[in-house]
Write a structure and sequence with these properties.
Length: 190
């Protein structure tokens, strides 16, 4: 698949078929993550691949609780209709765990380092694109409390579960959310 076609054609998938994803395909996607840039090549990420239905159920329960909480605090009505069932139906969940110690020189700034989060985001985008090129759908999911996910997955306090990437064969058509004209977002300083 041509790169620009892949970038434009990738969509956030929220409906998956039950069909599993083979381990060599998962590893291919994860290897693409490892080629992302990171501060001082610190490779600030770790990944947990979840296929176990009981663990997926626990993650679903946490996210669904957050969804209801989010609706209360924000008043956003769409959260009432938004379902996080895909956390159970996606055959694979990849938990992306960042290491704040692997953040580069910004660790010494007063506001603390966030380079490790940028690195993880770059790794996530690589996974999205490679999964898309392999005919799979993905979703970048963040509606959870990090401490609750730490507890479910036994992740130590000094590591940060930043995102859960749902991976599987997409089911149904996914509409394309429009983008603003890029000219509205660009300033040239010459
Ligand atoms: C940092 C980040 C967090 C996101 N969190 C969620 C999420 O918790 N739930 C969800 O359904 N989509 C989530 N998304 C996906 C966005 O909703 C989606 O990318 C956006 O609507 C544009 O759609 P597209 O990816 O199909 O182009 C997230 C995306 C990013 C980059």
């Amino acid at each position: 698949m041509e790169l620009f076609e892949a970038i434009k054609g990738r969509r956030s998938c929220r409906s998956f078929s039950q069909e599993g994803v083979e381990e060599d395909i998962i590893m291919k996607i994860l290897e693409s993550a490892s080629w992302a840039p990171s501060p001082m090549n610190a490779q600030s990420w770790e990944f947990m691949v979840i296929e176990n239905p009981d663990i997926k159920e626990k993650i679903f329960q946490e996210a669904d609780y957050r969804r209801k909480w989010g609706q209360e605090v924000s008043g956003w009505k769409w959260l009432g209709k938004y379902s996080v069932e895909f956390l159970k139906t996606a055959p694979v969940l990849i938990v992306v765990i960042g290491d704040p110690k692997k953040t580069g020189l910004d660790a010494f700034l007063e506001e603390g380092g966030v380079g490790y989060q940028h690195a993880c985001a770059a790794a996530i985008q690589n996974m999205h694109l490679s999964a898309h090129a392999l005919g799979l759908g993905t979703l970048w999911f963040t509606l959870f409390d990090r401490n609750e996910i730490r507890k479910i997955l036994d992740i130590p306090q000094d590591k940060v579960p930043l995102a859960i990437i749902c991976v599987g064969k997409p089911e149904g058509d996914i509409p394309t959310p429009p983008r603003k004209d890029i000219k509205e977002k660009v300033t040239f300083i010459r």
